[in-house]
Specification:
Spore Coat Polysaccharide Biosynthesis Protein SpsA, Chain A; 30% helix; globular
């Protein structure tokens, strides 16, 4: 039986910015040593439909792109598929040329065929046997003396799937009903995806209900009993996604759950690809999707993310992956993209988890938000289940650049949940450099007069010491309590245009340098910087209540942690550009928070082994369906 693993697709919207993810022009030039895409050849005007596109006479377009090349190395490594068939249906004169690459990004032509003016199907049987470390397949179209039209393209297999079950989709939302309706519309508009789905669980934890959003009623009617909206108290991402996991375990028809965030733009073909990859995987694997920037659509967040064991922090496995821009360098111009990159986890903006894995490992840790996805990936890895961040599977998500949740109420969860994940999974004595790094983050915040964020970090340290038994009980209260803490910290106020009492700096505004690589202190310089500035802030006598006149105004991107501490009072723009915040030195808060942070960090370090044993012993019960069901229903 033939199974389509991957369709050749084109954008559902006429946005030239996204085209490099689907089609690539015939040639590139260089400006200042960097590749420059020639956009005239692969134009959005030549996209004819979801599955068809035109190549103008005498021109050439490559489909060596993120969404249309075939990631052969990933299929060879993880699946039972040993051969893939590329079928290309064209009309018009020209040539179909098939290429492969190796792990270093070197290109090789493997086949070519001439096509005539009539509609013609060209098929290529391509083995998956030489992609151990990396490599892709793709095809180019070269038009002859007339336009060449790609009518349809697909990558398929005759292999039998190892797990044939259907797919559930689990979305969690808090007051983003418009995004949710948009995602449901994308699902409903893909008949193949609807056919593959058993249930869509939309876990609504907000006060602005999805059921009240314009367009929802029509989608509910179209999707019928495939769509189920579950309304529950706000238990964060971990609570919403755990609900979808628990509901999936009750469904005999489905074997996979695809988790989706709410503030996204969805590419439905990606869900089909993730489902097929999971169905054909040699052993159960978690299939992750990549995240592109919703407001800068050719830019990818990261390719494969890991948790570094020494400092126990998340991030890309090497820096070049971070915010790669496909308009500047596509697949053929990016050698590292051809190597197969392995991940420790995938963000739950888009992540498929086999039901077998959920049944064995349990649900999410009850931490509201932050680190639930990374912890689950590490838990799965320890149990022998790997995470594959699969190229060609992706969505668009609101960028982190417009957020700074390390300084708002999210700072509590960043600190607490990172340490909890470390207690559960760190293999280093006394956490390695985790606690040292966390303590340095507190000092940076204090030197930057971010006392609210430091207070939340101190609260987080104190709550870690309370042990795992309070996690479920505090799920619904932890976020409101963190936000209420802001009342005692005036730097949390955002001054917006038109506010009459907006502070004005006597020194004016710092002129942006647009330095792409600012140099921060490190190593011995960092130690000297800390030794110099901590005593200086300790001895300063000011209190923020005195409304110290601001010395300077910094744009957000220029307010580096090693620059702001030289001031007693400074204005800094918000991450989203909506306003300004006023940071003022306060000796009493600086001294109190520094002492509390250091004392609590030392206490956790001293008791690390006992705490780790306590958390590890409790987690099987705390991640169980039974424990989560009590939290869903509010029963003690």
């Amino acid at each position: 039986m033939t199974t389509v693993l991957q369709n050749v697709v084109f954008p559902t919207i006429t946005d030239p910015d996204v085209l490099p993810l689907y089609a690539d022009p015939e040639s590139w030039s260089e400006v200042d040593g960097k590749p420059l895409r020639l956009t005239a050849v692969a134009s959005i005007d030549n996209v004819l439909s979801r599955h068809s596109a035109r190549v103008r006479a005498g021109k050439r377009v490559s489909y060596a792109t993120y969404f249309n090349a075939f990631p052969a190395s990933y299929w060879q490594r993880w699946s039972v598929v040993t051969e893939v068939t590329l079928q290309v249906t064209t009309s018009g004169p020209g040539t179909v040329m098939v290429y492969r690459s190796n792990a270093a990004g070197a290109l090789q032509q493997v086949a070519a065929t001439t096509v005539s003016g009539e509609q013609q199907r060209s098929a290529f049987d391509l083995p998956l046997n030489k992609f151990g470390d990396g490599g892709w397949y793709w095809f180019d179209l070269v038009a002859g003396d007339g336009d060449l039209v790609l009518e349809h393209g697909e990558w398929s297999t005759e292999a039998e799937p190892t797990t044939p079950g259907k797919l559930n989709i689990g979305m969690t939302t808090y007051n983003k009903p418009d995004y949710c309706v948009q995602t449901l519309r994308a699902i409903e508009g893909s008949p193949a995806l609807v056919e593959a789905i058993d249930q869509v669980f939309l876990v609504d934890q907000g006060t602005q209900k999805v059921r009240d959003e314009a367009g929802y009623a029509e989608l509910q009617e179209a999707l019928g009993d495939k769509l189920r909206v579950i309304e529950q108290p706000n238990l964060g991402g971990s609570g919403g996604f755990s609900r979808s996991m628990a509901e999936t375990l009750k469904r005999d028809e489905s074997d996979f759950l695809l988790l989706l965030d709410d503030d996204i733009e969805f590419e439905p073909e990606s869900a089909l690809r993730a489902h097929q990859f999971a169905r054909f995987s040699r052993t159960p694997v978690i299939v992750g999707g990549h995240m592109f920037d919703l407001y800068d659509k050719p830019v990818m967040h990261a390719w494969a993310e890991i948790v570094g064991d020494e400092a126990f922090n998340w991030g890309p496995s090497f820096p070049e992956q971070h915010r790669h821009n496909f308009r500047n360098a596509n697949l053929r111009q990016t050698p590292w993209m051809h190597a197969r990159l392995d991940a420790d986890y995938n963000g739950w903006w888009m992540c498929l988890i086999p039901k077998k894995v959920i049944a064995e490992l349990g649900l999410s840790i009850p931490v509201f938000i932050k680190w639930d996805d990374a912890e689950y990936g590490l838990r799965a890895k320890a149990a022998g289940y790997r995470t594959v961040s699969l190229p060609g599977v992706a969505l668009w998500h609101v960028s982190w650049l417009d957020k700074d949740d390390s300084q708002d109420w999210g700072a509590y969860f960043h600190t607490r949940n990172r340490i909890i994940a470390g207690l559960l999974h760190s293999t280093r004595p006394k956490s390695g450099r985790l606690l040292q790094n966390s303590g340095r983050q507190d000092i940076k915040k204090l030197l930057n007069m971010q006392y609210y964020a430091t207070q939340l970090a101190v609260d987080a340290l104190r709550d870690v010491l309370k042990g795992p038994e309070v996690l479920h009980a505090t799920m619904a209260q932890s976020m409101p309590e963190a936000r209420k803490r802001a009342e005692g910290f005036p730097e949390t106020r955002v001054y917006r245009p038109g506010d009459e009492d907006t502070p004005v700096s006597r020194g004016g505004r710092v002129i942006p340098t647009l330095d792409p690589d600012p140099q921060s202190p490190s190593g011995a310089q960092l130690a000297l910087y800390t030794l110099k500035n901590v005593p200086k802030h300790w001895l300063r006598k000011e209190a923020e209540a005195a409304s110290i006149e601001p010395e300077l105004e910094y744009p957000k991107r220029e307010a580096f942690w090693w620059r702001v501490p030289s001031h007693r009072s400074v204005i800094v723009g918000t991450a989203d550009g909506a306003g300004k915040m006023w940071y003022r030195h306060d000796r009493a808060k600086f001294r109190r928070l520094l002492k509390e942070s250091r004392a609590l960090t030392r206490e956790i370090e001293k008791n690390w082994d006992a705490l780790a044993e306590q958390y590890r012993a409790a987690m099987p019960r705390l991640t169980s369906v039974e424990e989560w069901e009590r939290t869903f229903t509010g029963r003690s």
